[in-house]
């Protein structure tokens, strides 16, 4: 099925955003793990995998529309040095995605591509959940301070040998 060029461009642009987010979140998870923030790292890694699932759905849709998914480009990967900076950087990715997804839904519906619009709406719901999580974490950091916030998420190794 031949897809509309503007719809395909939105799909590819969101694919670029998802591929960028995979890298950013995965690196943040590795940095968090390195710092011993294992519980935070586990959540961030899961977010990276969620973005991978989004990329897969977008790739499938682009191919179905007889176009080529663009895996050649990435947006700027924003890497934080502190947990606050990491959450702020990840939040910015989500803000941009939400705006793009909403614009895409309008265009897709106007062009009669309801399936692509539904895909974007599904991804939008996930991104809204993620931004809600990030906002909550940033509010907690503001209330508790970064050190106390982080202390909640450190898992100590048990005294037994592995």
Give an account of the 3D structure.
- With 162 residues, the chain is an all-alpha fold.
- It has one domain: Up-down Bundle (Ferritin).
- Helix content is 75%, strand content 0%.
- The chain is built from 5 helices and no strands.
- It has helices at residues 5-34, 38-64, 83-110, 114-144, 146-151.
- The radius of gyration is 18 Å and the shape is elongated.
- The protein starts with a helix and ends in an 11-residue tail after the last helix.
- The model has no long low-confidence stretch (mean pLDDT 95).
Shape: elongated
How many H/I helical runs? 5
How many domains, as an integer? Answer: 1
Got a strand count?
A: 0
CATH superfamily: Ferritin, core subunit, four-helix bundle
Model regions low in confidence, pLDDT < 50 over at least 5 residues: none
| Largest sheet descriptor | none
CATH topology: Ferritin
